[in-house]
Amino acid sequence: MRIEELREEEFVCGSFACAGCGAILAVRLALKVLGPETVVVTTPSCLLGVTTFYPQLAFKVPCVNVPFPATAAAVSGLVAGLRRKGRENVRVLGIAGDGGTVDIGLQALSGALERGDRFIFLCYDNEAYMNTGGQRSGSTPLGASTATTPVGRGAKGEDRPKKDMLRIVAAHNIPYAASASIGYPADYIRKLEKAVKAGGPAYIQVLTPCPPGWGYRSDLTVHLARLAVQAGQWALAEYEEGAWRVKEVSNPRPVREYWALQKRFAHLLQESGGEG
Amino acid sequence: MIPVLPTPHLSSRTGAWRMLRPVLEAEKCNGCLVCWLFCPEGSIRRENGSVSIDLDYCKGCGICARECPRRALRMVEEASFMGEGGGKLA
Ligand SMILES: Cc1ncc(C[n+]2csc(CCOP(=O)(O)OP(=O)(O)O)c2C)c(N)n1
Ligand code: SF4
Ligand code: SF4
Ligand code: SF4
Ligand SMILES: [Mg+2]
What we know:
The structure holds two protein chains of two kinds.
Chain A lengths: L21 H13 L3 E5 L3 H6 E2 L2 E2 L5 E3 L5 H14 L6 E7 H6 L2 H10 L4 E6 L25 E2 L2 E2 L8 H6 L5 E6 L3 H13 L4 E6 L3 H4 L6 H10 L6 E4 L2 E4 L8 H6 L5 H6 L5
Parallel strand pairs in A: 1-4, 1-5, 5-6, 6-10, 9-10
Antiparallel strand pairs in A: 2-3, 7-8, 9-11, 11-12
Chain B lengths: L19 E5 L9 H5 L5 E4 L2 E4 L9 H5 L5 E5 L13
Antiparallel strand pairs in B: 1-4, 2-3
Bound molecules: thiamine diphosphate, iron/sulfur cluster (SF4) (3 copies) and magnesium ion.
């Protein structure tokens, strides 16, 4: 799908997301690909907070809000109900943040993947629990300073590597799983189209920078989503019919260039005297 | 079609948050739609060969100006417009 072929209609508009929010951009693009015959299921997170802040309701498609661990369980229920009603043409899109996916929503997601229901699960990864003030999650990268992994006397930020959620999901042998970045929209859109066509569960984990949570100016969101890939901090990977494909980085950048633009990594540069 | 709830129920215009306003220099724009694609708020309209900005929900994040390959967008202090244009509280 080329840019010109994307729908003009917006399916999420007027949300209370921060200026430059990567998550809302990822959801906007996803709904442009999926279209109006979609039901969104989401869970406590920035996305829920900023789109359903009554009376400001920002989704134009139906949006079901469920308890934190339950996104994929509710997705399964909707899929079953729509099947019963002969409405299998309606797409069910579960959306959760990284906390709601790799930590708290993992069990329900595993169950839904195992059942083989036909749905798309979109994890927008801003690499922490942002809606509650930026606490670390299983998806926080090594070294990042967060509210619960601060930098200070003897503390050097997150001390565990990022959870490899894509491989956990792929281990369920589902038809399609991919990682994407809003800095590579053509790749992201192509993956969404593949997810739509998959005959069973499809999972996409998209990197969505967060200006206040990562500590950078709002105009850098797309730039950082691109730089994360170029600096080897995020892979554009795809698991399809049992085989992996990873996009090769044609123009690699030094990781310190990525760190230097974000407050959450500032201490790493000080430690290494700016050499990264 | 599935019945769509009568949303969006939008009670306020988030354009009121804006500190910087994107201003288009139309003669530099070649209609590549990069800004349209990346605007998180969907505030840019496609218009035969060019674009226009709907200020009602533009938060002034500056992504469009930063990503425009032709530097056809500039971010200008909102205060210099003396409140004219979109995004005032309804
Ligand atoms: C069972 C339960 N635990 C905790 C919370 C509080 N809570 C609401 S949103 C949120 C953060 C969600 O983080 P994530 O899923 O990464 O989404 P983000 O906010 O980063 O977009 C938390 C902890 C809750 N609503 N329910
Ligand atoms: S805190 Fe981050 S993820 Fe949440 S609305 Fe703001 S920019 Fe988006
Ligand atoms: S990115 Fe720049 S050149 Fe392209 S359509 Fe927008 S304003 Fe015009
Ligand atoms: S400043 Fe941000 S919200 Fe406004 S039109 Fe540009 S990208 Fe969209
Ligand atoms: Mg998060």
